[in-house]
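re: that chain from earlier
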Amino acid sequence: MDKPEITEDKFFDCCFTLAVEDIYELNKADNGPLNNVIVNLEDHCYGVELCDDEHGLDVRMFFVDNRQGLRGDIIILNLMDDDYNLLLMKFCNLLAESYENVDAIAAVNTYQTKLRGFIEKSGFFTVSNHEIEPYLGQGAVLFSNAERGIFKMKFIRHRDYYRDWFGNIHDGEIVENAEYVYLMVNEETGLIKIGRSKNPKYREGTLHSKEPAVHRVAFWKADKELEKLLHDRYAKNRVRGEWFRLTFKQLNDLERFVQEYLQSNVKN
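^ sequence. v structure.
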């Protein structure tokens, strides 16, 4: 899945802010999670509604939060739209920037998981891109006796997404005795670790004993000053220690900041 780049007009034609009365209207058809948020039993919830009729497969995906007053957002998508995945990612990115502790990639996977159940119930056999991965290039053919055929769904790994984001520099050459500033992601939480090591690849291995879901996504040849600057720059996003929750906007800022720092040090 690409970075969330799509025309603003198309996005805002299908994405809307929910008024409080809209949330109560949605609650009439909800099976419990939304009501739990309304009555403060839960902080937030993700909701999915599938409309399957003669016009096609449309889905309403909403997020409602009650940590600072009842508020929410909703997007209405056609599952056959070529831009479906981009629109969903852009919506989840909006949620990550608007609500505390929302991870855009985790939100995409949450919506896709909820939607998958509805699609199966509608008579399709669903398969994910991750389930197909082991058979790519082997000439495998997928068959199903489902009434309405096979429906492919796309899920995202933080590791793959962020490695692509930074141009797949995670596997670069390590120079002996040099220092590196690295980024690693925890696949389970989406948190980004900003750290420093003489060998980020080895450091990743040492972390696996405690956090096996941690993967390096980028590293740059740089001294501890860059690490300190990044820690200070995103101090408000610190969750614990060297772990930060960063939005896509902040990742863009981080990438730009690092490149400017490296170029400045080359000139000096």
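Residues 248-267 form the longest helix (20 residues).
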